[in-house]
DNA sequence: CTGTTAGCGCATTCAC
DNA sequence: GTGAATGCGCTAACAG
């Protein structure tokens, strides 16, 4: 009863052959009109179209894939689907791909490198036309090897600086961080702390660059004690902020390199009875859903996540069409969003 | 340069035929060991395995799909990928499927009914073995028709009550709502308001049932003015809560049927200068990421989202294996999570 | 136990 | 313009 047999009333899905015979033409002709070839007589085209409609025919993509070599699928590897950050990129990718009638095949890696590698291996073998790798675990070398195999892919948010030839899209991390820092500076802050994410990742490195550049051009001497490392999580962000706030000479503002850690900083501040933002300004990075929701609402740097996903898709599409990419490394603009977590320092 | 040609150094991916000749057997034999058939001599099996490893061979799933009739893909339709709610379910599904070496093909519907229908149509035609429909737009009739076609699918979070025969998984909405209401009741609240989501959806209906049941069994007369409809969004939740709070005799507690609306309620209360939770208790539903992050942290009903996703996957897997499902309609337990947004009413 | 023979549904040379 | 023939890589009977 839970077992739907091929069913009696149900018209079995028709094949190209049936359409052909119904239209009184050969399957080759049907294939032609299906693929919009120009060399078909209008009359025959109509006949075929009618047969297609009558039968409710849809081309079997599997068969087409095997024959034509293109599957219409794009693999997307990502560490974690449930992370809103990736979900937002993924949404952009899926949507852009959809518009080209292509679909996303998900392969969550769960941060398991081995898993990622074997996955990619399988992806390549006939199941996908290409892939989009989000925050890939793969080393530059592995990526280059993959490229050498001729498998088209684009990376989003590279963990480490990538080789020249590897197409990648990321956010303008440095300039975003610069804007955030300048904002703090212009409010009058001078003792500004930074909570890095994983220090080795490109995103952290770039943001730190922007942070330092802003301080430097304002003639502010950066206190090394005010730059601490963390791991992008709320909990660790809270710990890092706590340490900062317990310093003999604590900062008046904290720039956390993502919203999670900024939220942790908010907690640490609250735990110490600090009034926000009067006694401590906090800036995040990402502009996650949470940023607008916490109290006080977080001033943060917005990453165009969906856009990044779309861009990655469109780069990949161009690769698939053998087009030359004018720009292999795309960096999308970030934007400072000022909310309630920043204010001038107390005199 | 951006055009990775088949590449010279790159070994073209080998086919089963090459493996066969390398191992000195027929392709049928290779196919057998690849699929773990028992009827192969250990010696030949070893020889084949070695050849497979040597060549770095991976079976072409497309070809297998066309031949064997199974694609190894499961389609997942969902309104919005970026919504954390669906992302969490999706993660569970993808993970469970992955363990069976199957993959998820994404088809976001963007709430477009037409789109959903044609999508499903295509999904069925050879590209997927089955599907998981999250909060499907399809009517019961359409779903039944689909079932009649013999296409296996499972729905997660049905919008309307489904026909008996349609496999579905959802959360224990009624009992969750009952628990939430009882919690408020036991705190001493008597004027308890409810902000429904979209009133027609099963989730709302069920939660309302639970809400009313709890009130009834506590002997509390429900005031119709305290039950208002909304749409599951923060903004509308805020409006609804505002209206409630502006009542001549406002409620002392609000049970919002999801966390978004609860967060809206928090805002409305704050806008009116109410102290939380002393002057207003708020309970949500979902236990989203945000719930733990807002101030005050939200007391809410936790939905086992990932579990729901996994369960849907495993039901589908069973359908695919022609197993009979003992239970077609699975309801996963919810759990009250008490945090800081609820307290006894002021005397 | 293993090899041979047929397709799966479609795209794609070729002739006509 | 259109049709017949061939193959994509693999699985699935059927023989032996």
Report on the structure:
Two copies of one chain form a homodimer. The first copy, chain A, is an alpha/beta fold and 347 residues long. The first copy, chain A, has helices spanning 16-23, 27-34, 42-55, 61-68, 84-99, 113-127, 140-148, 173-187, 202-217, 234-245, 259-271, 305-320, and strands at 73-78, 103-108, 130-134, 153-156, 168-171, 192-196, 227-229, 253-256, 281-283, 300-302, 329-332, 335-337. Chain A has three domains: 13-51, lambda repressor-like DNA-binding domains (434 Repressor (Amino-terminal Domain), Orthogonal Bundle); 73-170 and 305-332, Rossmann fold (3-Layer(aba) Sandwich); 173-303, 3-Layer(aba) Sandwich (Rossmann fold), CATH 3.40.50.2300. Chain A has twelve helices and twelve strands. In chain A, strands 2-1-3-4-5-11 form a six-stranded parallel beta sheet, sandwiched between helices. A four-stranded parallel beta sheet of chain A has the order 7-6-8-9, sandwiched between helices. Chain A has a two-stranded antiparallel sheet with strand order 10-12. The interface between A and B is large, with 68 and 68 residues. Strand 2 of chain A pairs antiparallel with strand 2 (103-108) of chain B. The structure holds a DNA duplex (16 and 16 nucleotides).
């Amino acid at each position: 009863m839970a077992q739907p047999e091929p069913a009696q009333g149900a018209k079995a899905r028709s094949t190209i052959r049936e359409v052909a015979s119904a239209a009184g033409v050969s399957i080759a002709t049907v294939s032609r009109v299906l693929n919009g070839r120009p060399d078909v007589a209008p009359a025959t085209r109509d006949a075929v179209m009618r047969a297609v409609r009558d039968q409710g025919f849809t081309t079997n993509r599997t068969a087409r894939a095997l024959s034509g070599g293109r599957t219409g699928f794009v693999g997307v590897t990502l560490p974690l689907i449930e992370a809103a950050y990736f979900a937002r990129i993924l949404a952009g990718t899926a949507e852009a791909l959809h518009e080209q009638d292509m679909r996303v095949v998900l392969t969550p890696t769960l941060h398991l490198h081995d898993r990622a590698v074997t996955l990619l291996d399988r992806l390549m073998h006939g199941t996908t036309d290409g892939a989009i790798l989000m925050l890939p675990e793969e080393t530059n070398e592995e990526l280059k090897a993959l490229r050498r195999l001729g498998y088209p892919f684009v990376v989003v948010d590279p963990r480490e600086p990538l080789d020249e030839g590897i197409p990648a899209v990321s956010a303008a991390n440095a300039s975003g961080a610069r804007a955030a820092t300048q904002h703090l500076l212009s409010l009058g802050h001078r003792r500004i702390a930074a909570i890095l994410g994983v220090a080795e990742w490109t995103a952290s490195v770039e943001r730190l660059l922007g942070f330092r550049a802003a301080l430097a051009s304002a003639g502010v001497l950066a206190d090394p004690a005010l730059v601490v490392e963390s791991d992008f999580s709320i909990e660790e962000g809270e710990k890092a902020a706590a340490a900062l706030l317990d310093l003999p000479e604590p900062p008046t503002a904290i720039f956390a390199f993502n919203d999670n850690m900024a939220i942790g900083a908010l907690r640490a501040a609250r735990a110490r009875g600090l009034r926000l933002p009067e006694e401590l300004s906090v800036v995040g990075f990402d502009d996650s859903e949470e940023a607008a929701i916490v109290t006080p609402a977080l001033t943060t740097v917005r990453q165009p996540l969906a856009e990044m996903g779309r861009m990655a898709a469109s780069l990949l599409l161009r690769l698939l069409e053998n087009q030359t990419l004018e720009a292999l490394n795309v960096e999308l603009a970030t934007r400072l969003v000022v909310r309630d977590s920043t204010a001038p320092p107390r005199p």
